[in-house]
Amino acid sequence: MGSIEIIDGDITTLEVDAIVNAANNGLRGGGGVDGAIHRAAGPELLAACVPLGGCATGAAKITPGFKLPARYVIHTVGPIWRGGSAGETSLLASCYRESLRLAEEYELRSIAFPAVSCGVYGFPLDQACGIAYQTISQHLEAGSRIELVYLVCFNQQIRSAYERVAAA
Ligand code: APR
Prior knowledge:
Layout: E1 3-8, E2 18-23, H1 32-41, H2 43-49, E3 60-64, E4 72-77, H3 88-105, E5 110-113, H4 125-141, E6 148-153, H5 156-167
Parallel strand pairs: 1-6, 2-4, 2-5, 5-6
Antiparallel strand pairs: 3-4
Bound molecules: adenosine-5-diphosphoribose.
């Protein structure tokens, strides 16, 4: 069964089959990890996103990685935190599920996730990391050809949240 590894670092440096981008509905780039991925991939990434016609919250779409060391970028759009009663939990779980579904479809073996929705979109860290860890674990336990899932911690707060979840 595939394993989950909590690692520190910048997701744009990882040589994996796919890195996941915490994008917005327009798929036109932005700040945070979205901006970092577009900067590192180069302008071809935006050109590849334009014909995709955007991405719904909770959905995922895939493009090549271009200048990134990763072969592919899976763009997913997390929910904006609005207090927790607007379906945010299920939408965030869907981001992870749909990203993993695409990885299976493309027969990818390694995938790296940032903490989707935990920056600009304001999702409470412990809750978001719990959703991520649980959704990914369930996917791997159900039988998957994915061998390695990295949970990338861009700061100590994210690492602590994932470690609490993994220890629970
Ligand atoms: N590598 C790994 N993780 C990163 C990196 C990076 N280079 N840069 C930022 N992060 C982390 C942040 O610390 C945060 O934990 O990614 C997580 C997600 O934060 P955001 O990038 O702000 O994404 P999100 O909260 O999902 O908001 C998405 O922000 O940047 C815009 O265009 C994006 O509109 C979209 C919105």
